[in-house]
Amino acid sequence: MTASEVQRGSALENVHAQGATRAFGRSLRRGAKVLPEHARGHNRSLVLQTLFHDGAMSRADLSRETGLTRVTISDLVAELIADGFVAELGMRESSGPGKPAMLIDLDRAGHRIVGIDLSGSEVITGAVLTIDGDIVVRREVPLPAADDVVETVVSLARELVAESHAPVLGIGVGTPGVVDERGVILAAPNFGWVGFDLEGALQDALGLPVLVANDANAAVLAEYTFGGAGDDVLLVKVGRGVGSGLLAAGQPMRGPRFAAGEIGHVTVGTDGGPLCSCGKVGCLEAWLSVPSLTERLAAASIDERDGILRDAGERLGIALAPVVGALDLSEIVLSGPPELLDGPLADQAVETLRTRTLAEFHDGVRVRMTEQGQDIVLRGAAVMVLSGQLGVS
Question: In b/e form, how buried is each residue of 23-47, taking b as 16+ CB within 10 angstroms?
Fold first, then answer.
């Protein structure tokens, strides 16, 4: 092991020793200077955040972008280089007089993140990701019996850490269920978990920082960081269930009981409807989940297909209209099978939103598909680690 690898490993141990800072109780992105007593950690994150989004620049450029003094920037950059998070790339090509500036950037190849997605109906998916959210290794294992899920996740995570070939910042896990700010699963019926400290169990087994969140909450972070979503966005994740993740003014909204976004069991309409797995009639999940939609489409004729999809889209619009009206949202992102969600279903959801909200202010509500496909929870898990460990999102 080289001296630089030893130094980088030591810096990462220091990060790990501090524990994984929760990303969900504050605004995700550092945007300005703060009071002196909080300044160093904040300004360190501000530097990393600026480089993460804007790319390579000189120290002088970084000073102008952040509003920090050149002395402060010089000190912080030296520290971040020593810790292995920032690297000097070489001199900028000069077109005028004077000494050319040295360019610096995040050491984007210097660390890896492991993401785990527990939201699949048949498999558990894991990946090794770069700081930029690119997947370099992907593994899938069959979904085991509920009693064996933790053991399977630990085994998969160990395999991925071994294949990372770089220090691992942490492990992010997106899971179905209601999850509190400490990564405790308050309720996940599909796994039979109630009050289960999944984050603690994984961290003890793996010896690395672990962050656990609801899969839809993870997905909306991916859309915010890698998908170009604005500060006010609702992401609806449709799979074997239906859930949503919400950002308002760049702040993740989770609710005092951590159940914000649990829209799947909202009853949509008073005209009855299919029986839901929860025992109620007419829940959004019973209309919109992939198994429910697929079953109804399989039993329908070709001429009936669009009607079934539009009906599901109307139910989605009914559920979302009060949220859009109350929070003045302008963007709804759908995540799930595009052959089901994109087209008649999304179009009808937009139309229903327009008729059920104040048209003067909500006529421009946009409903679109995510472009991140099946990787959205994995990439969101990476954002959880970036935000928790480096203050970057």
Answer: bbeeebbbeebeeeeeeeeebbbbb
User: Residue 31 carries which side chain, given as an amino acid letter?
Assistant: G
Give the ranges where 273-301 is alpha helix by DSSP (H). Answer: 284-288, 290-298
Q: How far is CA 48 from the centre of its chain?
A: 19
348-376, pLDDT tens digit by residue?
999 999 899 886 766 778 889 999 999 99
pLDDT for 95 equals 63
Number of H helices, E strands in the chain: 14, 16
Phi, psi for 132 (deg, rounded to 5): -85, 5
Q: What is the DSSP string of 193-237?
A: BSSEEHHHHHHHHH-S-EEEEEHHHHHHHHHHHHS---SSEEEEE
Three-class DSSP labels, 180-200: CCCCEEEEECCCCECCEEHHH
Taking alpha carbons only, the member of 230, 198, 192, 231 closest to residue 214 is 198
Taking a C-beta distance cutoff of 8 angstroms, is the pair 91, 100 a contact? yes
User: How far is it, in rounded angstroms, from Cα 317 to Cα 310?
Assistant: 10
Q: How many CB atoms lie within 10 A of CB 256?
A: 6
Annotate 10-63 with three-state secondary structure: HHHHHHHHCCCCCCCCCCCCCCCCCCHHHHHHHHHHHHHHHHHHHCCEEHHHHH
Per DSSP, 93 falls in state P
pTM: 0.86
Per the listing, tokens 């992907």 go with 138
What pLDDT band is residue 99 in, cutting at 50, 70 and 90? confident
Cα Rg, the chain, nearest whole Å:
23
102 phi-psi bin (left φ>0, alpha ψ -120 to 50, beta other): beta
d(CA 174, CA 127): 12
Cα–Cα dist 31/53, whole Å: 12
Interacting residues of 107 by C-beta distance below 8 A, sequence separation 6+: 84, 85, 86, 87
